[in-house]
Amino acid sequence: MSRAEEFQELRPLLFSIAYRILGSVSEAEDAVQETWLRYESAGARPVSAKAYLSAVVTRISIDVLRSARIRREQYVGLWFPEPLLADPYEDPERSAELADSLSMAALLLLERLSPLERAVFVLREVFGFGFPDVASAVGRSEAACRQLAVRARRHMDAGRPRFEADRREREELAGRFFDAFTEGDVDGLRELLAADAQLVSDSGGKAPRWGQGVAGAANVARALATLVRPFLEIGGVVEPCEVNGQPGAVFRDRDGRVVNTWSLDVLDGRIQMIRTVLNPDKLGHVGPVADAWAVVQETTRAHRTSG
């Protein structure tokens, strides 16, 4: 197998590692490309291409994360990871860890860890790397990596309860939710929302904060029902799909361009949180991006006319 073929075979794994460390599709893709450039120009081929390339992409991602943290501290409004519609890497033996670590909630918890803790947690807890390979990847001793792993696991375990384990039940709930949403059924929506449900958005100051900071089942249900009818009237489309391994949707304008994405947090048979990403800088990998300001203005006019 050539070096290029070897790299292509491992590319899904490398992207998945980088995305979980960085929370950014574009930055993860750049880290993978840089990994290839280094591999291509390296001397003798390593004994284990997987271990070598995973270490390289991890080190690159740690460096990128350290500089990205400064930008995120200056970010306008709430910061969410870039939405990922499909994880390219699959491992049946670690499917639960991979799915759990991909959710918006888990990625936001990872933001609380130091770059080293985050990298160690991702390699060890999510992808199941042995401590010798983890230590090599982050440039620390095995003992230090064990301590980093313990601290990271403690922070992650304390941060949130686990989501519904039953995927079918979660998808059924999401199906009912989107049916009620597209029908503008306030009562139906309220029944599916947790009492303290929230609707929150990431616009980065570059798009309208559509539905920002709405809390409580009744308020969220009314906000959603008010939004959907005029949006559909102007040709908007709500496309249910998986977002970061959780139920979600892509909103498109009449020309099929992406307005925003939604992801739903489900716990105890109810929807706890709806996170919407509107920042156009985070949506380009999903498809051509709409002018969200224009869509919201048109939706608002349609609402006033129909009201």
TrEMBL record:
Subunit structure and binding partners: Interacts transiently with the RNA polymerase catalytic core formed by RpoA, RpoB, RpoC and RpoZ (2 alpha, 1 beta, 1 beta' and 1 omega subunit) to form the RNA polymerase holoenzyme that can initiate transcription.
A Pfam entry, by short name: Sigma70_r4_2
UniProt lists the family membership as follows: Belongs to the sigma-70 factor family. ECF subfamily.
Q: Which residues form the RNA polymerase sigma-70 region domain?
A: 7-69
Q: Report the residue ranges that make up the RNA polymerase sigma factor 70 region 4 type domain in this protein.
A: 105-156
Q: SUPFAM superfamilies attached here?
A: NTF2-like, Sigma2 domain of RNA polymerase sigma factors, Sigma3 and sigma4 domains of RNA polymerase sigma factors
Q: What is the lineage of its organism?
A: Bacteria, Bacillati, Actinomycetota, Actinomycetes, Streptosporangiales
**GO molecular function per UniProt:** DNA binding; sigma factor activity
What's one GO BP annotation on this UniProt entry?
Answer: DNA-templated transcription initiation
Does this entry carry the keyword Transmembrane helix?
no
- Any keyword Transcription? yes
State the source organism's domain of life: Bacteria
**Name the UniProt record assigns to this protein:** RNA polymerase sigma-70 factor
Q: Which UniProt keywords apply?
A: Sigma factor, Transcription, Transcription regulation
